[in-house]
Each structure stands twice: as structure tokens, then as C-alpha cells.
Amino acid sequence: MKSPDKPDDEFHRLSTLRGLNILDTPSEERFDRLVRTAKRLFDVPIALVSLVDENRQWFKSSIGMAAKETPREVSFCGHAILGDDVFIIEDAVEDPRFADNPLVTGEPFIRFYAGCPLRAANGCKLGTLCVIDTECRRFSEEDQKALQDLASMVESELAAMVLATQDELTQILNRRGFMLLAEQVLTGCTRHGLSGALVFIDLDNFKGINDQWGHREGDRVLQVFADGLQAEVRESDLCARLGGDEFVLLLTDTRAIQAQVLMDRLRRHLAENKSTGKTDYLIEFSHGVVPFDGNHPVELGDLLELGDVLMYRDKSSA
Fold first, then answer.
1. Is the pLDDT reported for residue 318 higher than 70?
2. Which of 220, 222, 253, 285, by CA, is between 20 and 30 Å from 170?
3. At what angle do helices 175-192 and 10-19 cross, to 10 degrees?
4. pLDDT for residue 285
5. Would you give the distance in Å from CA 158 to the centre of its chain?
6. Residue 317 confidence (pLDDT)
């Protein structure tokens, strides 16, 4: 038996998955409906929406499978998320990767498997919509397209969950989304001994912009600033609007001096917006950088509180 490898974006993938706050939640009709459709369409005894966590695959919706989860090391879905296309095993007994897999040699006696990766908006593969049979079978191109269509519907439902954690104006995380994801990221940092930094940011003279140019222009400033943040951070970093003109970054595997360099780059980026006419004024900000040591657990609330204090100290000294 071959256990599945970990994707290259595993850390970011797990943060995205856990940020949905979907693991270990009750079944929901919107997912169950699609699983029932898959079972009926492909005439299989088992159909699942499977989400691949760090050490397990957990079933948000399932038909024909008594277990709610199985170890990741024996999962077919763990293999499926490594590719972009539908992952197909027509006869598990004849495949050396799965022939002695306990899910093949014992319940539920898998012979056929087809799983379509489920992608988040950021491209991370969270799990699969999969169909399973206890008999060997073929899976045509038409079958694959049909499974992909159903998987797209599952992705749409997952995306709807993301909207509850996304700031409507700037399209980055909102406070709720940040708090959910940041807790998971900090747990991961402690587990892997990764240091990092939280950056608390507040725009300068934002009220003046609203008063002089109007709230529509103020909204545009927030959008331009959020775009600047996203242009400078890495995919693995969290970027959020906490509310009003307050923003926050959570940077992993980063020292305080590197966080400061990022802020300097952001200032240059915003200055370039003014020099090229994208804005008629310079968007300025104050910030506080709070480093943390991944070898010692930290509380998110403490990081935010200290970041807020340091930000106001920076604003007062300007």
C-alpha cells in the first residue's frame, strides 16, 4: 500500500480548510442532495463529499459509508487531491498502491473509485466528491465530465461558506474570517515551530478623505489599499480588514525585520499609485509589528491587543 503524499501547499491548504469551520459539523441538505445525485447518476453504493484534514479524511456528506472518517494514510481521496483531474481506480485489487489497503481488503471492500478534487477560491484542494463501488468498472470521459459538473456545485456551496468570512468591499478576509483562520495558523505555527509576526494597520487621515472626497472615494481608498496589501504579501499570509479603516496581516515564517521590509514595500507601492495618477493623494498608514516565537503558544487576542497599542504609538509619533 502507498500512503498519499502531501501537496506542496499543505500548510496553506489546511489553513484554508479549517478556516471554513466545516470540519466535524452536522450533515447539510445542500451537500447531501449532491451526494444523492452522484449515487443515483453513477449507480454506485457509495458517494461522499470527503475533506482531507491533516491526518484523516472526514465526510461532510456520505451515502453507503458507515464511518464518518478514516485515516488519511489509507485514503483514496488523499491521492486524488494531488492532481487536477478526476482520479480513477478501475480495479483497486490490481493497483499496487491500493491492493493491500484495509479499505480494499476489508469494509467497505473498495474495487472502483473516482474522485474529483474540490478547489477553494484560492486554488487549494480541500477534498473530493467521490463515487465508490464494490465491483470493478469503467469510467468514461462523459462520466468524468458529469462528476466534474457535480463537483463544481459542491465547490459553489463551499464558496458560499467563504462569503461569510470575506469582506464584501475589499474581497479580503473580514474580522470573522481572520479570527477563524488565524487561530488555525497559530496552532500550525506552534506545531511546526514556525515563528511569525502580526501587523496591525490603521489608515491615516481616512476621515479627511471621506469628508473631502465623499464616501464613495473612501470606499475606493479601502479597495486600493487592500489591493496593495495583496500585491505585497505571500499566498501563505493572512490579510484581512477588521472593520472601518483597520487592517491586519498574519505573516508566518517571518521575522519582525522582514515584516517591516514588507511595510516599506507597501508604502512605495502606495506612493507609486499617486505618482501614476491612480489616486490623487498619498494613502498613508500607521502600523504595529508584533513578532511571535513558534516554539511558544501565543493567544491571538494578545497579539491583536499589542498590535493595536504599537500602531497608535506609531500614529502618535508621526
1. no
2. 253
3. 140
4. 96
5. 11
6. 86
Residue type, 5: D
Cell matching residue 313: 504609538
Which of these, 291, 287, 302, lies nearest to 183 by C-alpha position? 302
CA-CA-CA-CA torsion for 140, 145, 147, 149, nearest 10 degrees? -170
Task: Give the domain ranges of the chain.
Answer: 10-163, 175-317
Q: How far apart are CA 245 and CA 206, in angstroms?
A: 7
Domain 10-163: homologous superfamily in CATH: GAF domain (3.30.450.40)
Task: Tell if the pTM clears 0.90, that is, is over it.
Answer: no
Top-confidence residue, 234 or 139: 139
Instruction: Yes or no: say if 281 and 244 are a contact pair by the CB < 8 Å rule.
Output: no
Q: What is the mean pLDDT of residues 287-315?
A: 94
Other CB atoms within 10 A of residue 291 CB: 17
Class of the CATH-defined domain 175-317: alpha beta
Quickly list DSSP for 250-303.
EEES--HHHHHHHHHHHHHHHHHHHHTTSSSS---EEEEEEEE-TTS---HHHH
Contacts of 155 (CB under 8 A, 6+ apart): 118, 119, 120
